[in-house]
Specification:
By secondary structure, the protein is of the alpha/beta class. About 55% of the residues lie in helices and about 15% in strands. It has helices at about 1-10, 25-40, 50-60, 70-75, 80-85, 95-110, 125-140, 150-155, 170-180; strands at about 15, 45, 65-70, 90, 145, 165.
Amino acid sequence: MLKVIEKLLILGVEVIGIPCNTSHAPEIFGRVKRAVMSQCPRVRLIHLPTEVVRIIGEKQPPKCRIGLMATNGTCHSKIYQQLLGQSGYQAIVPPMDLQEQIVDRLIYDKKIGIKANSVDPTREAVSLWHKALDFFRLEQVNTIILGCTELSLIHHRHPEDGLTFIDTTDVLARALIREATQPT
Protein backbone atom coordinates (compact mmCIF):
# COMPACT_ATOMS: atom_id res chain seq x y z
CA MET A 1 0.00 0.00 0.00
CA LEU A 2 2.82 2.43 0.82
CA LYS A 3 4.34 1.85 -2.64
CA VAL A 4 1.05 2.79 -4.29
CA ILE A 5 0.82 5.90 -2.12
CA GLU A 6 4.40 6.84 -3.04
CA LYS A 7 3.43 6.65 -6.72
CA LEU A 8 0.42 8.87 -6.05
CA LEU A 9 2.65 11.41 -4.30
CA ILE A 10 5.04 11.42 -7.27
CA LEU A 11 2.04 12.16 -9.50
CA GLY A 12 1.23 15.16 -7.34
CA VAL A 13 -2.07 14.13 -5.80
CA GLU A 14 -3.47 16.42 -3.13
CA VAL A 15 -5.99 14.07 -1.51
CA ILE A 16 -5.64 10.36 -0.73
CA GLY A 17 -8.32 7.94 0.42
CA ILE A 18 -7.80 4.30 1.32
CA PRO A 19 -10.90 2.16 0.69
CA CYS A 20 -9.80 -0.76 2.88
CA ASN A 21 -11.39 -0.31 6.32
CA THR A 22 -8.85 -2.60 8.01
CA SER A 23 -6.08 -0.26 6.84
CA HIS A 24 -7.51 2.36 9.18
CA ALA A 25 -6.55 0.38 12.27
CA PRO A 26 -4.42 2.81 14.30
CA GLU A 27 -1.16 0.88 13.93
CA ILE A 28 -1.54 0.66 10.13
CA PHE A 29 -3.03 4.09 9.45
CA GLY A 30 -0.47 5.73 11.73
CA ARG A 31 2.39 4.34 9.62
CA VAL A 32 0.70 5.44 6.41
CA LYS A 33 0.03 8.92 7.75
CA ARG A 34 3.61 9.37 8.96
CA ALA A 35 4.95 8.23 5.58
CA VAL A 36 2.66 10.60 3.67
CA MET A 37 3.33 13.56 5.96
CA SER A 38 7.09 13.04 5.82
CA GLN A 39 7.07 13.10 2.01
CA CYS A 40 4.35 15.65 1.36
CA PRO A 41 2.82 17.42 4.37
CA ARG A 42 0.26 19.28 2.22
CA VAL A 43 -1.51 16.09 1.12
CA ARG A 44 -4.87 15.50 2.80
CA LEU A 45 -5.25 11.89 3.92
CA ILE A 46 -8.86 10.93 4.54
CA HIS A 47 -9.55 8.82 7.62
CA LEU A 48 -12.48 6.66 6.49
CA PRO A 49 -13.89 5.66 9.91
CA THR A 50 -13.99 9.32 10.98
CA GLU A 51 -15.90 10.18 7.80
CA VAL A 52 -18.32 7.29 8.38
CA VAL A 53 -19.08 8.39 11.94
CA ARG A 54 -19.54 11.98 10.73
CA ILE A 55 -22.13 10.77 8.20
CA ILE A 56 -23.90 8.74 10.88
CA GLY A 57 -24.02 11.89 13.01
CA GLU A 58 -25.88 13.63 10.19
CA LYS A 59 -28.44 10.82 9.93
CA GLN A 60 -28.90 9.34 13.40
CA PRO A 61 -29.32 10.87 16.86
CA PRO A 62 -26.82 9.86 19.58
CA LYS A 63 -27.47 6.75 21.66
CA CYS A 64 -28.55 4.74 18.60
CA ARG A 65 -27.32 1.20 18.21
CA ILE A 66 -25.07 1.08 15.13
CA GLY A 67 -24.11 -2.29 13.67
CA LEU A 68 -20.67 -3.02 12.26
CA MET A 69 -20.42 -5.70 9.59
CA ALA A 70 -16.72 -5.90 8.74
CA THR A 71 -13.67 -8.10 8.52
CA ASN A 72 -12.18 -9.70 11.61
CA GLY A 73 -9.28 -7.24 11.39
CA THR A 74 -11.53 -4.19 11.36
CA CYS A 75 -13.58 -5.54 14.26
CA HIS A 76 -10.45 -6.44 16.27
CA SER A 77 -8.94 -2.98 15.72
CA LYS A 78 -11.98 -1.47 17.50
CA ILE A 79 -11.55 1.73 15.49
CA TYR A 80 -15.25 2.00 14.69
CA GLN A 81 -16.28 0.98 18.21
CA GLN A 82 -14.09 3.72 19.70
CA LEU A 83 -15.19 6.46 17.30
CA LEU A 84 -18.86 5.53 17.62
CA GLY A 85 -18.59 5.46 21.42
CA GLN A 86 -16.88 8.87 21.47
CA SER A 87 -19.80 10.22 19.42
CA GLY A 88 -22.45 8.80 21.74
CA TYR A 89 -23.42 5.70 19.77
CA GLN A 90 -23.44 2.09 20.85
CA ALA A 91 -21.48 -0.12 18.45
CA ILE A 92 -22.95 -3.58 17.94
CA VAL A 93 -20.47 -6.14 16.62
CA PRO A 94 -21.25 -9.82 16.10
CA PRO A 95 -19.82 -12.17 18.74
CA MET A 96 -16.63 -13.88 17.59
CA ASP A 97 -18.27 -17.21 16.70
CA LEU A 98 -20.89 -15.52 14.52
CA GLN A 99 -18.26 -13.19 13.08
CA GLU A 100 -16.08 -16.11 11.98
CA GLN A 101 -18.85 -18.50 10.89
CA ILE A 102 -20.98 -15.97 9.04
CA VAL A 103 -19.42 -12.57 8.29
CA ASP A 104 -15.85 -13.74 7.67
CA ARG A 105 -17.09 -16.60 5.46
CA LEU A 106 -19.38 -14.20 3.60
CA ILE A 107 -16.37 -12.07 2.72
CA TYR A 108 -13.43 -14.48 2.42
CA ASP A 109 -14.59 -18.05 1.79
CA LYS A 110 -12.67 -19.21 -1.30
CA LYS A 111 -15.71 -20.98 -2.82
CA ILE A 112 -18.73 -18.94 -1.76
CA GLY A 113 -17.37 -15.62 -0.46
CA ILE A 114 -17.86 -12.23 -2.06
CA LYS A 115 -14.15 -11.80 -2.80
CA ALA A 116 -14.23 -15.00 -4.86
CA ASN A 117 -17.57 -14.20 -6.54
CA SER A 118 -17.85 -10.42 -6.68
CA VAL A 119 -19.82 -10.21 -9.92
CA ASP A 120 -22.54 -12.66 -8.93
CA PRO A 121 -22.72 -13.56 -5.23
CA THR A 122 -23.46 -17.23 -4.58
CA ARG A 123 -26.68 -18.47 -2.98
CA GLU A 124 -24.62 -19.46 0.05
CA ALA A 125 -23.20 -15.94 0.35
CA VAL A 126 -26.69 -14.44 0.10
CA SER A 127 -27.83 -16.84 2.85
CA LEU A 128 -24.93 -15.72 5.07
CA TRP A 129 -25.77 -12.09 4.29
CA HIS A 130 -29.34 -12.63 5.53
CA LYS A 131 -28.12 -14.46 8.65
CA ALA A 132 -25.82 -11.55 9.50
CA LEU A 133 -28.66 -9.07 8.99
CA ASP A 134 -30.91 -11.22 11.21
CA PHE A 135 -28.33 -10.88 14.00
CA PHE A 136 -28.41 -7.09 13.72
CA ARG A 137 -32.21 -7.03 13.67
CA LEU A 138 -32.31 -9.15 16.83
CA GLU A 139 -29.92 -6.64 18.42
CA GLN A 140 -32.35 -3.84 17.52
CA VAL A 141 -29.94 -2.22 15.11
CA ASN A 142 -31.41 -0.21 12.26
CA THR A 143 -28.18 1.28 10.86
CA ILE A 144 -25.34 -0.98 9.72
CA ILE A 145 -21.86 0.09 8.64
CA LEU A 146 -20.69 -2.00 5.68
CA GLY A 147 -17.10 -2.01 6.89
CA CYS A 148 -15.57 -3.96 4.01
CA THR A 149 -15.46 -2.82 0.39
CA GLU A 150 -16.86 -6.15 -0.84
CA LEU A 151 -19.99 -5.90 1.31
CA SER A 152 -21.37 -3.10 -0.84
CA LEU A 153 -21.38 -5.55 -3.77
CA ILE A 154 -23.85 -7.91 -2.11
CA HIS A 155 -25.82 -5.05 -0.57
CA HIS A 156 -26.53 -3.50 -3.97
CA ARG A 157 -27.65 -6.84 -5.43
CA HIS A 158 -29.68 -7.87 -2.37
CA PRO A 159 -31.00 -4.72 -0.67
CA GLU A 160 -32.99 -4.99 2.56
CA ASP A 161 -35.98 -2.95 3.62
CA GLY A 162 -36.16 -1.58 7.13
CA LEU A 163 -32.40 -1.18 7.57
CA THR A 164 -30.15 1.79 6.83
CA PHE A 165 -26.75 0.90 5.41
CA ILE A 166 -23.67 3.09 5.55
CA ASP A 167 -21.62 2.02 2.55
CA THR A 168 -18.05 2.98 3.41
CA THR A 169 -17.07 2.91 -0.27
CA ASP A 170 -19.71 5.55 -1.01
CA VAL A 171 -18.66 7.59 2.04
CA LEU A 172 -15.05 7.58 0.85
CA ALA A 173 -15.99 8.58 -2.71
CA ARG A 174 -18.01 11.53 -1.42
CA ALA A 175 -15.22 12.59 0.96
CA LEU A 176 -12.68 12.46 -1.87
CA ILE A 177 -14.90 14.62 -4.07
CA ARG A 178 -15.49 17.09 -1.23
CA GLU A 179 -11.78 17.38 -0.43
CA ALA A 180 -10.67 17.50 -4.07
CA THR A 181 -13.05 20.38 -4.84
CA GLN A 182 -12.15 22.47 -1.78
CA PRO A 183 -9.51 25.15 -2.24
CA THR A 184 -6.16 24.25 -0.67
